User: Fold this.
Amino acid sequence: MLLTLLRRLRVENNNKKGRPSISESARRNKPLIIRLNDKERETIKAKCEEAGYQAAGAFVRDLLIKGKPGQKQRIPLSHLQLSLELQRIARLIQKGNDSEHVVRELFALNNKLLTGE
Assistant:
């Protein structure tokens, strides 16, 4: 009985795999062709990269519909490294390490930030 039910579900799903289909109203199926010269194309490419977009289509669509492209959030590597260091020190505190050891670690992190190492 369970096997029959699974077979029916598979038939109803049309044996589709992968991403689920989206509604017709949400589907982007109307192309907009814009002719550009090399300089214009490079300018758009540079603005896409500056705003954090990988696809020019998404950049242009946001620019035309929203009036301006949304700024994609980029977190600098140095901030990620700082976050990891702070998490490591927080774990030392959670483990109940000696407060002098934690303070030494904080001083070392501070010196690392000040010297840019």
